[in-house]
């Protein structure tokens, strides 16, 4: 990961602290809950393709939620790696 990518992550972190970022995080969380509910309550009546579609939606929302809620940990881990390597750029 280079310095530009780290700066992008830091920009995402700043966005997550805004009201819009919080709305996006909460929307992703609600979508996850709804997707799990839908899968749990209709898996036996859905086709294979419909289940794949529902799981893909769940996966994308989980990825978004994890990005928005774990961004600070990711940034710190990357900075720690840079420090171990003795560089601020990679």
Could you characterize what this model shows?
This protein has helices at residues 3-16, 19-42, 48-85. With 90 residues, it is an all-alpha fold. It has one domain (3-84). α1 (3-16) crosses α3 and α2 (19-42) packs across α3. The radius of gyration is 17 Å and the shape is elongated. The model has no long low-confidence stretch (mean pLDDT 91).
Search tags:
0% strand; mainly alpha; 3 helices; 84% helix; 90 residues
Please state the overall shape, judged from the principal axes of the Cα atoms: elongated
Total number of beta strands: 0
Q: Quickly give the structural class.
A: mainly alpha
Q: What is the total domain count?
A: 1
Which percent range fits the helix content?
A: over 70%
Quaternary status of these chains? single chain
- Could you state the order of secondary-structure elements as H and E? HHH
Low-confidence stretches: none
Strand percentage: under 5%
Distance between the termini: 6 Å
Largest sheet: none
Mean pLDDT, all residues: 91
Cα-atom Rg, whole angstroms? 17 Å
The total count of helices amounts to 3
Short précis:
The protein has 90 residues and is mainly α. It is 84% helix and 0% strand.
SSE order and pairing:
Elements: H1 3-16, H2 19-42, H3 48-85
């Amino acid at each position: 990961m280079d310095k530009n990518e780290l700066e992008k992550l830091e920009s995402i972190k700043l966005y997550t602290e805004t009201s819009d970022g919080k709305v996006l995080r909460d929307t992703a969380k609600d979508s996850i809950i709804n997707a799990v509910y839908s899968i749990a309550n209709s898996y036996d009546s859905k086709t294979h393709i419909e289940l794949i579609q529902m799981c893909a939606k769940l996966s994308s929302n989980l990825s978004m939620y994890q990005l928005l809620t774990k961004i600070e940990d990711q940034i710190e881990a990357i900075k720690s790696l840079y420090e171990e390597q003795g560089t601020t750029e990679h």
